[in-house]
């Protein structure tokens, strides 16, 4: 009883396990087109994502599952450094996560470097203040009074 397996998951005795077609080193089955489970899953996800792009393009060019896996891994590695740079202090490179302080100069800082004097901020606070005052208080100039 305990040694029985489902027929869908077991390999028949006459069928030898074959290596994955992509050459990743794992074994594939005929049910998954001789691909291992990971390569088969990647192939299915790229096919689902490729359907809308194929409709848009005039000259569809089919990709192999290996090329599409390499392309998807290269795009994900390019976006990763951008997100990690936003969660670190610009001065000390300390991880700040959700508690980072956004300065008017556009950078994120930790609690120690959140003030402009602590991180050598180059934002012109004085100029911004002058502009705000000049917009809020326009110059009012009256006409001269005529003498009799």
Explain this structure to me?
This protein has three helices and four strands. The protein is mainly α and 148 residues long. The strands form two sheets. The protein has a two-stranded antiparallel sheet with strand order 1-2. Strand 1 and strand 2 form a beta hairpin. The longest helix has 22 residues, at 65-86. Residues 58-63 and 74-85 have low confidence and may be disordered.
H/E series, N to C? EEHHEEH
Averaged pLDDT, please?
A: 75
Structural class: mainly alpha
Work out the strand percent. Answer: 5-15%
Structural topology:
Blueprint (H helix, E strand, L loop, with lengths): L17 E2 L7 E2 L8 H20 L8 H22 L14 E2 L5 E2 L15 H12 L12
Antiparallel strand pairs: 1-2, 3-4
Helix pairs in contact: 1-2
Write a compact overview of the structure shown.
The protein has helices at residues 37-56, 65-86, 125-136; strands at 18-19, 27-28, 101-102, 108-109. It is mainly α and 148 residues long.
Summary keywords:
mainly alpha; 3 helices; two-stranded antiparallel ribbon
């Amino acid at each position: 009883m305990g040694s029985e397996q489902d027929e869908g998951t077991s390999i028949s005795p006459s069928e030898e396990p074959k290596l994955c077609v992509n050459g990743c080193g794992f074994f594939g089955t005929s049910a998954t087109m001789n691909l291992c489970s990971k390569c088969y899953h990647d192939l299915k996800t790229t096919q689902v994502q490729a359907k809308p792009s194929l409709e848009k393009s005039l000259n569809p060019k089919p990709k192999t599952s290996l090329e599409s896996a390499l392309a998807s891994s290269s795009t994900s590695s390019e976006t990763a450094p951008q997100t990690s740079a936003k969660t670190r202090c610009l001065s000390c490179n300390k991880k700040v996560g959700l508690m980072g302080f956004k300065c008017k100069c556009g950078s994120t800082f930790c609690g120690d470097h959140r003030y402009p004097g602590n991180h050598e901020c180059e934002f012109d606070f004085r100029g911004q203040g002058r502009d705000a005052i000049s917009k809020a208080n326009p110059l009012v100039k009256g006409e001269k009074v005529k003498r009799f």
